């Protein structure tokens, strides 16, 4: 059985963040999100996360993400080895299993790499297999020390390394496979006799080698996967790499991104072929977009489903469904489980909230449709407002098929407009309107002729 321990106890001082480091975001998801995802994809059946600094934030997040993940608290935080020691019960439970241990601040590590390292680990009957990479920037890394024949000796942390060791450009990824029983043994021997007075997990390598156990390093081809982030600049670097990787994968799949500037697409987003994504567009969450759409510029979509042949120009779409052939924008907001059915047109400065808008209905400008059930082929005049909130409670409006809502209409919810009813412009509708009726709900116009000459309501010129 495969299982995993994720290290997430550190504060991440250099991030200068309010949250623990692993909660700092890459493409709008905390770094630990990607680590958990990779570990699960790699087949880990039991996962333990070590928490420490502001542990309640990480615990709360994990509970929502996957309630089967257990946590172990590390307080105070005395190093990566000390962190793993807190998972004593978990390790004892998995003495006969292979345990993956990895840093929670390395979101680019993927299931493929983890599994290749696992195969290498099993094929060589290793007690410990670490993942390493050849890197350009050796600052702050754990240097992999080998003898003249390339046989692994130990890991030297940058702060403990002499000038010669600092030149070693093979870096420890912070991702290891251990045999459970051997891990348990090695941890019992780790001390804090080093430059940082910390219990280093990395010392387990030398401990196991000295015991005559098999140890190996799986060297990755693409050194990007081992990158972590200790500060905001590195976090930006991770965003750039992940963004590029996701955009490239989408383009290979037929998505047209003529200019990737400002295009940030999350890892779980699906987009169909021939859809065009224009600059400054952010698409995240569990969003699915069909074929032949034009999305953007300046569009934000979170957790929504978009059909085929849809145009979203300068829109914000949250937790909603946009069906085939819908045309939205510019400057449109659709939110809170709204559904725009086939062929709907929503134009500039229109907001739709918690509403269903039926097939072919149109709201071209300056309108608020909130808590409403709108039929098909409804025409909203400019400036229609559903008055859905009385200061205490929300209520719904129901608008029948083919209804015509004149400009500047207020619909005071709860209210129903019948099929094919017409509402005169400027009406404030408080009562239900029967099908095919015309409703006029406004003061009658009065013209007072000559009023200005009589009243002289202006300052007279001298
Ligand atoms: C660690 C490795 C280093 C490797 C590097 C790769 C050690 C001693 N060094 O160094 O060889 O090259 O990762 O990124 O392991 N954490 C805890 N509790 C603690 C300390 C850390 O949970 O007491 C967690 C952190 O939240 C983080 C992870 O462990 O997710 C790594 O800690 P960090 O301090 O960033 O280790 P590095 O110095 O980068
Ligand atoms: Ca680190």
What does this entry show, briefly?
By secondary structure, the chain is an alpha/beta fold. The chain is built from ten helices and 38 strands.
What does it look like?
- The protein is α/β, with parallel strands linked by helices and 462 residues long.
- Strand 4, helix 2 (55-65) and strand 5 (70-73) form a beta-alpha-beta unit.
- The radius of gyration is 31 Å and the shape is elongated.
- The N and C termini lie far apart (98 Å).
- The structure holds uridine-diphosphate-N-acetylglucosamine and calcium ion.
Q: DSSP strand (E) fraction?
A: 25-35%
Structural class: alpha/beta
Low-confidence stretches: none
Choose one word for the global shape: elongated
**Mean model confidence by pLDDT:** 97
The strand count comes to 38
Count of alpha/pi helices: 10
Distance between the amino and carboxyl termini: 98 Å
* Biggest β-sheet description: 15 strands, parallel
Provide the list of bound ligands, each named once: uridine-diphosphate-N-acetylglucosamine, calcium ion
Helix content: 10-25%
Our Rg estimate from Cα atoms comes to 31 Å
Question: Any key phrases for this structure?
Answer:
462 residues; alpha/beta; 15-stranded parallel β-sheet; nine-stranded parallel β-sheet; 10 helices; 20% helix; elongated; binds uridine-diphosphate-N-acetylglucosamine; binds calcium ion
How do the helices and strands line up, and which of them pair or pack?
Blueprint: E1 2-8, E2 25-26, E3 29-30, H1 31-41, E4 46-51, H2 55-65, E5 70-73, H3 80-85, H4 88-93, E6 98-103, H5 111-123, E7 128-134, E8 142-146, E9 152-157, H6 163-166, E10 170-179, H7 180-187, H8 203-210, E11 215-219, H9 232-252, E12 264-265, E13 270-271, E14 276-277, E15 282-284, E16 288-289, E17 294-295, E18 300-302, E19 305-306, E20 311-312, E21 315-318, E22 321-322, E23 327-328, E24 332-335, E25 339-340, E26 345-353, E27 356-357, E28 362-370, E29 372-374, E30 379-380, E31 385-387, E32 397-399, E33 404-405, E34 410-412, E35 415-417, E36 422-423, E37 428-429, E38 438-439, H10 451-455
Parallel strand pairs: 1-4, 1-6, 4-5, 7-11, 12-15, 13-16, 14-17, 15-18, 16-19, 17-20, 18-21, 19-22, 20-23, 21-24, 22-25, 23-26, 24-26, 25-27, 26-28, 27-29, 28-30, 29-32, 30-33, 31-34, 32-35, 33-36, 34-37, 36-38
Antiparallel strand pairs: 2-3, 6-10, 7-10, 8-9
Helix pairs in contact: 7-8
Bound molecules: uridine-diphosphate-N-acetylglucosamine (UD1) and calcium ion.
Calcium ion is lined by residues 103, 105, 228, 230.
């Amino acid at each position: 059985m495969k299982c995993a321990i994720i290290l997430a106890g550190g504060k991440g001082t250099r991030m200068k963040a309010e949250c623990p480091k692993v909660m700092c975001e890459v493409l709008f998801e905390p770094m630990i999100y990607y680590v958990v995802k990779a570990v699960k994809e790699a087949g880990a059946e039991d996962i333990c996360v070590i928490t420490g600094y502001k542990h309640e934030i990480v615990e709360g997040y994990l509970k929502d993400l996957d309630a089967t993940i257990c946590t172990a608290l590390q307080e105070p935080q005395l190093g990566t080895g000390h962190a793993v020691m807190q998972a004593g019960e978990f390790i004892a439970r998995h003495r006969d299993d292979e345990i993956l241990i990895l840093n929670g601040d390395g979101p680019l590590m993927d299931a493929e790499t983890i599994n290749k390292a696992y195969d290498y680990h099993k094929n060589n009957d290793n007690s410990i297999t670490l993942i390493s990479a050849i890197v350009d920037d050796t600052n702050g890394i754990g240097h992999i020390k080998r003898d003249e024949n390339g046989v692994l000796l130990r890991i030297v942390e940058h702060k403990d390394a002499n000038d010669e060791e600092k030149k070693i450009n093979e870096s420890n990824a912070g991702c290891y496979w251990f045999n459970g029983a051997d891990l348990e043994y090695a941890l019992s021997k780790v001390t804090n006799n080093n430059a940082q007075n910390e219990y280093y997990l990395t010392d387990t390598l030398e401990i196991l080698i000295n015991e005559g156990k098999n140890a190996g390093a799986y060297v990755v081809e693409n050194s990007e996967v081992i990158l972590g982030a200790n500060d905001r600049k590195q976090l930006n670097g991770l965003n750039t790499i992940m963004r590029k990787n996701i955009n490239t994968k989408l383009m290979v799949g037929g998505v047209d991104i003529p200019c990737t500037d400002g295009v940030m697409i999350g890892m779980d987003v699906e987009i169909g072929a021939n859809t065009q994504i224009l600059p400054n567009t952010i698409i995240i969450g569990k969003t699915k977009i069909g074929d032949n759409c034009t999305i953007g510029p300046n569009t934000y979509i979170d957790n929504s489903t978009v059909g085929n042949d849809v145009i979203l120009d300068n829109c914000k779409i949250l937790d909603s469904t946009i069906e085939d052939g819908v045309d939205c924008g510019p400057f449109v907001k659709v939110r809170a489980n709204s559904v725009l059915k086939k062929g709907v047109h929503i134009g500039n400065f229109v907001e739709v909230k918690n509403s269903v808008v039926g097939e072919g209905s149109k709201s071209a400008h300056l309108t608020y449709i909130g808590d409403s059930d709108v039929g098909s082929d409804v025409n909203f005049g400019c400036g229609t407002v559903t008055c859905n909130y009385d200061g205490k409670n929300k209520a719904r409006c129901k608008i029948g098929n083919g209804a015509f809502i004149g400009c500047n209409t207020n619909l005071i919810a709860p209210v129903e407009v019948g099929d094919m009813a017409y509402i005169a412009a400027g009406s404030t509708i408080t009562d239900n309107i029967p099908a095919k009726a015309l409703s006029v709900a406004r003061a009658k116009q009065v013209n007072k002729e000559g009023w200005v000459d009589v009243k002289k309501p202006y300052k007279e010129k001298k």
